[in-house]
């Protein structure tokens, strides 16, 4: 069972939470994946539920769009196209799912490695959509092993990437262009401040890194 993060970790995750597009700069604006004014978010607000995906439209109460008693987490929203991705342990361990922003057309991503029984549980990590929403990089760990996968959104299939850890900078076709090695298991990252400052959540650390790149919309 996965426990909710400590308050400090949760705040850091919220500050740095958008899983952003590929390319020379990360996208910091509102997602175009959903209708104007609609917000999609992950929360453990349910009294007897460890985590669900919700949509929130102006003037109405949050709507549970994942509808399970399992734990859903790690939500990512495509910059373009009506597509979201999230982890769920509804099968007994973390699996990756794709869906529309209203929860319809739910699809399980195939090819995320060995699914045979193990003493180590599979734990989903950071999810990062490409700028055009056609692909996704997913981080999945089992014990001390951390693997990165390139996801074909249209086919809902995964392809293993060369292990390198840290913050990946992949091209839309899944080729790793570079990385930032944090030395820790890394979750979310986002540009902020002047548009050239990259914020990174890495295990117990909340990192701030000055770069020569400028985030989109700055």
Secondary structure elements and pairings:
Blueprint: H1 7-15, E1 39-43, E2 52-56, E3 63-64, E4 72-77, E5 84-88, E6 95-99, E7 107-108, E8 122-129, E9 135-142, E10 145-152, E11 157-160, E12 167-170, E13 176-180, E14 186-192, E15 197-202, E16 205-210
Antiparallel strand pairs: 1-2, 2-3, 4-5, 5-6, 6-7, 8-9, 9-10, 10-11, 12-13, 14-15, 15-16
Largest sheet: 4 strands, antiparallel
Mean pLDDT, all residues: 75
Order of helices and strands: HEEEEEEEEEEEEEEEE
Q: How many strands in all?
A: 16
Radius of gyration: 16 Å
DSSP summary: helix tally: 1
What amount of the residues lies in strands?
Answer: 35-45%
Report how far apart the termini are. Answer: 40 Å
So, the CATH homologous superfamily?
TolB, C-terminal domain
- Total domain units: 1
Task: Give an account of the 3D structure.
Helices cover 4% and strands 39% of the residues. The protein is mainly beta. The chain has one domain: TolB, C-terminal domain (Neuraminidase, 6 Propeller). Strands 4-5-6-7 form a four-stranded antiparallel sheet, with no helix packed on it. Strands 8-9-10-11 form a four-stranded antiparallel sheet, with no helix packed on it. The N terminus is likely disordered.
């Amino acid at each position: 069972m996965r426990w909710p993060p400590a308050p400090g970790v949760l705040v850091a995750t919220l500050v740095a939470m958008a899983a952003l597009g590929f390319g020379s700069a990360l996208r910091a604006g509102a997602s175009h994946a959903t209708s104007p004014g609609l917000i999609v978010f992950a929360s453990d607000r349910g009294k007897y539920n460890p985590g669900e995906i919700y949509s929130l439209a102006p003037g109405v109460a949050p709507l549970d769009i994942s509808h399970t008693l399992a734990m859903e987490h790690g939500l990512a929203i495509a910059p373009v196209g009506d597509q979201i991705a999230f982890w769920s342990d509804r099968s007994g361990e973390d699996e990756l799912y794709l869906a529309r922003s209203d929860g319809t057309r739910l699809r399980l991503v195939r090819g995320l490695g060995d699914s045979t029984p193990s003493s180590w549980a599979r734990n989903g990590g950071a999810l990062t959509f490409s700028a055009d929403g056609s692909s996704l990089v997913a981080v999945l760990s089992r014990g001390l092993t951390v693997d990165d996968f390139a996801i074909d959104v249209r086919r809902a299939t995964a392809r293993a990437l060369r292990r390198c850890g840290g913050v990946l900078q992949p091209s839309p076709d899944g080729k790793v262009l570079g990385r930032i090695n944090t030395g820790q298991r890394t979750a979310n990252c986002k540009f902020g401040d002047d548009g050239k400052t990259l914020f990174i959540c890495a295990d117990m650390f909340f990192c701030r890194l000055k770069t020569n790149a400028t985030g989109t919309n700055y």
